[in-house]
Specification:
The protein starts with a helix and ends in a 14-residue tail after the last strand. By secondary structure, it is of the alpha+beta class. The chain has helices at 3-13, 19-25, 31-40; strands spanning 17-18, 43-49, 55-62. Strand 2 and strand 3 (55-62) form a beta hairpin. Helices cover 37% and strands 22% of the residues. The model is unreliable at 63-67 (pLDDT under 50).
């Protein structure tokens, strides 16, 4: 599993975690950069600032990746 996949998995299993919490839990990898890598691959994050001013993150979902080639459909 790559670092960006680890970040996505962390926010899926810990919705509402902060970037700092993720960074500490994942061995101090650069979480913000890995979130950018995930966004480049179609993962979307939501964020909300809590009452203490800390940004909290959730994985929204993933956009469909661009498709190329021919799609075939099998009929039974």
């Amino acid at each position: 599993m790559t670092d960006w996949q680890r970040v996505v998995a962390y926010f899926r299993t810990h919705p509402g975690a902060s970037r700092g919490e993720a960074q500490q839990a994942l061995g101090w990898i650069h979480v913000t950069a890995r979130m950018s890598d995930a966004r480049a691959r179609g993962i979307e994050f939501d964020k909300v600032r809590d009452d203490k001013g800390v940004w909290r993150y959730w994985v929204r979902g993933s956009r469909l990746a661009p498709m190329s080639g021919v799609q075939t459909v099998a009929f039974g």
